[in-house]
Amino acid sequence: MKILCLHGAYGSAKAFRTQLDPFVSKLEKAGDVAFKFVDGQFPVNPPEGFGDYFGPPPYYRNIDFDGVDGLARLVNTLRANTEGESYEDTLRALLKGDGAIPGEETIAKTFDRITQYLDEDAEIDYGIFFAGWPPSKVEDGKVKAVLADECEDMIDVPTCHIVGSLDPYLYGAMSLYGVCNEDNATLFDHGKGHTVPRDNTTIEELVASIRKTIADAGL
């Protein structure tokens, strides 16, 4: 199986692969899992000193700051990629036969179609989140963060949430965890900050958690 890997803001496929290397290498050893890392579509310039910690440029974002138009451009980019090599076919299928999507008019429609597609024929078997950010919803034509008690929707597929108890963004990651089905959502706390674990003991435990998530998905 292939796991699609999307980096965070101010990232790149190469840098994310390097950050996850101990975990990825360990999981790939069995030969039944492969990883695909892709660059975001928006080049960005990070704050001064960023490269000292996260490596040299180029850096990218997956969605630009102008949320509505940025989302539309993301969806159109998905459609433009080669089938099987996009962000991936999960979202392409719901857009077949449509023309370009003007973001200022269709953000709510886009979200509705994504939700409908996942409800009817879910192609996302499971999710793995390193840190994470609050989930979003469309309200009054704007994208807003949402908490579990503010939304009836839930992520039902098995998920694994890798967090650090010392992460200054922990509450955002826990907000994402809160909208996932508690019966098949695994919480893995490596006890550090906004980092990716690299020591052998933690990697072994993390791989076991990921394997459990994959097994919960019936794969």
From TrEMBL:
One of its GO terms (biological process) is secondary metabolic process. Residues 1-51, 121-204 form the Serine hydrolase domain. Keywords: Hydrolase. It holds the Pfam family FSH1. GO terms for cellular component: cytoplasm; nucleus. One of its GO terms (molecular function) is hydrolase activity. It comes from the Eukaryota. Coiled coil: none annotated. PANTHER family: ESTERASE ALNB, ESTERASE OVCA2. This is Serine hydrolase domain-containing protein. It comes from Beauveria bassiana D1-5.
